[in-house]
Amino acid sequence: MAEEHPNVDLLREAYAAYNRGDLDGFWQACREDFTFHVPGRSGIAGAFTGQAEFHRLITSVLELAGGRFEEVVEDVLANDHHGVVLTLQRFERYGMPKEYRTAHVYRIQDGKLAEAWEQPRDPETFNEAWS
User: Of 14, 46, 63, 65, which has the fewest beta carbons less than 10 angstroms from its beta carbon?
Assistant: First the structure.
C-alpha cells in the first residue's frame, strides 16, 4: 500500500483540531493570509481572509447552529499543491435538523493551507440550511 501524501496528514490533523474545538490548532496549518470562500446567499457567504476573519466565520456558524455543529470527515485527498476534504455536516436551525455533504477544496503553498473553497454537493440544500 502506498504511503499517504504529507498534505493528507496536514489536512487530517487540521480537521481533527477543528473537531476538538481547537481553532488555533486548525490555524497552525494555515498561511497567515489564508482565505476561506463560502458560496451562496446566506449570512455565512463570502470570503474570509486571515485568522480574525476565519474566527468570525466559525463564530457565525456556531451561533446559527445553536452552538452545535458536527463535521464528519469522509475522505481526504491531496498532492503538493491541492487538497480536498469531503465532509458530512450536521446541525440544527430553528429546531430543525440540517444535513448536507460538501467538499472543501484547498490550494496548498509551501506546506500550508493558502486558500479554500466550500463546494456543496447540492447548493440549494446548502443555501436552505444557512438561510
Answer: 63
CATH of the domain at 53: 3.10.450.50
Structural domain range at position 71: 6-130
pTM exceeds cut of 0.85: yes
CB 39 within 8 A of CB 130: no
CA distances from 10 to 33, 57, 61 (A): 17, 21, 23
Q: Does some domain include residue 51?
A: yes
Instruction: Specify whether the CB–CB gap between 29 and 8 falls below 8 A.
Output: no
Query: Which parts of the chain register pLDDT below 50?
Result: none
Q: What is the mean pLDDT of the chain?
A: 95
Beta-carbon contacts of residue 47 (< 8 Å; ≥ 6 apart):
35, 36, 37, 38
Percentage of the chain beyond pLDDT 90 is: 92
